[in-house]
Amino acid sequence: MGRPAGGCFRLLGERAARKGWEPSLAAALWGPAAMTLEEIHGQEPVPAGHDWMQGAGKALHELLVSAQRRGCLTAGVYESAKLMNVDPDNVTFCVLATDEEDEGDIALQIHFTLIQAFCCENDIDIVRVNDVAKLAAIVGPSEESGEPRDLHCILITNPNENGWKDPALEKLKSFCEESRNVNNDWVPTITLPE
User: Fold this and answer.
1) 52 band by pLDDT with thresholds 50, 70 and 90
2) What's the rounded mean pLDDT across residues 30-39?
3) Among 9, 38, 88, 135, which has the minimal tally of Cβ within 10 Å of its Cβ?
4) What three-state secondary structure class fits 97?
5) Distance from C-alpha of 191 to C-alpha of 108, rounded to nearest angstrom
6) Contact, 121 vs 2, CB < 8 A?
7) 75 and 151 in contact (C-beta within 8 Å)?
8) How far apart, in Å, are the Cα atoms of 186 and each of 23, 66, 68, 127, 180?
């Protein structure tokens, strides 16, 4: 279920007019289904005390471990962009992660906006995580070099034609759908368990 395109294009034109930008520049930066940084940062995550929020954090942890074990995990902004360009049909889930020091990184925020637009257009569920260190503890360093990897964007893929039915993935997809339908939150923030 994607975002209604008409509203997105209308908002895109309004944003471009407010900024005094040419519509083509705004489209290049935002794409038709993206939100502005102000809109994203204005969203408050559901308090972690809610059972379904805690369940989503646990499900994300389980999904990351399972996907890495199966070889279905791609980490890194550039690696993810390459994969989405080459094989977008096999991307099933996206995690965008930042820390406080990343909030001022405009280049990273532009990459996030473009990734979000691509995911919205291709019905790929997306969540945000505000703790890269917790992700690093789950995913670990690169298996090839042992070096820390870029965990700002993680994609979960489904390489099998039959489809990979992971209960954690199904729970996260339900969480994302509920966030969209109930809270109008297209990129919900998940808190990973300790």
Assistant:
1) low
2) 42
3) 38
4) strand
5) 21
6) yes
7) yes
8) 23, 24, 25, 8, 5
Q: Running DSSP on this structure, what letter comes out for residue 47?
A: P
Token digits of residue 106: 């405009």
Closest to 40 in 3D by CA, of 101, 130, 147, 118: 130
Q: What confidence tens digit (pLDDT) does each residue in 158-178 have?
A: 866 556 678 898 999 988 988
Residue 3 three-state SS: coil
Query: What is the pLDDT at residue 114?
Result: 92
Phi-psi label, residue 156: left if phi above 0, alpha if psi -120 to 50, beta otherwise: beta
CA-nearest of 50, 72, 51 to 63 is 72
For residue 73, give Cα distances in angstroms to 27, 43, 130.
29, 27, 19
DSSP letter for 161, please.
Answer: S
